[in-house]
Amino acid sequence: MTNKKILIERSTGALLSTNVKKNESIWRYDNCYKMIFSINGSMNYQMKRNDFVLSKEEFMIFNPYDEHKQLSVENQKFLIELDPFFLNEIANSINSYNFDIQFANSIQKNPQITQWALFVSEYVSMYNENIDNSVALFLDHSFSQLAILLIKNTVGNHTQTWDLTSFKTVSPLIYKTMEALMEDYQRQWTLDEMAIVSNLSKYQFAHLFKEITGLSPYSWLQVYRIIRSQEELKKTNKSILDIALDCGFSSVSVYNQLFKRLYGDTPGTFRKKLK
């Protein structure tokens, strides 16, 4: 396979698409939001508190100054960097936040973001090194589109709930189960109970759910509980213990551990930052 690398830099961000295999031996951090998207094949990244293995069409987002290291890339690497001021300006035009967006460090998958990434990747690859003003203009508008998609469809300190609309046509059965989990997120669900909602065997259900969302059913539910807890942290003075139990976590230690893995902060520090 011929080595191929496309790098396009704009004032609002940058795009990198390459099949050149390169492992990073040193930690790095950048003053930008960085979306790593797996076009095809696995991608392995490491953070100080967690390792991530992305499969086909899964992605994750590093916040500005998140320390990370690339361990391996199987096939093509597709990376988008967005300027923090640019993304937060768009976020404030959508909903007036009084804080900078911080995305959760979690593997995610979303049909709209997948469509965006595949389309943009194919478009820029057609031009390869013949980047002219039309490609640059296309990318400027594409960065704005991506910023909106990330703000509306990913997990972060701004997220109030999950918009499931784009999953409805992709997999009605999984969509139905996601709706049920969101409506009764405090319940201690079993895999069998989730599978019954989808009319699938628990093995079929678990495989399909992971394929559609990028997360196991239980992990997805736990992340949704984190989202609901964020609103409690922002808007109430309830104790961390009460919030954890009210949102369906089995203990405050489980809640604290998952929260810190996603955000690098405890719920208490998160609350102080936003208040």
UniProtKB/TrEMBL annotation:
Q: Which SUPFAM superfamilies match?
A: Homeodomain-like
The protein's name in its UniProt record: AraC family transcriptional regulator
Lineage top rank: taxon: Bacteria
**Residue intervals of the HTH araC/xylS-type domain:** 175-273
Q: Which UniProt keywords apply?
A: DNA-binding, Transcription, Transcription regulation
Q: Which Pfam families match?
A: HTH_18
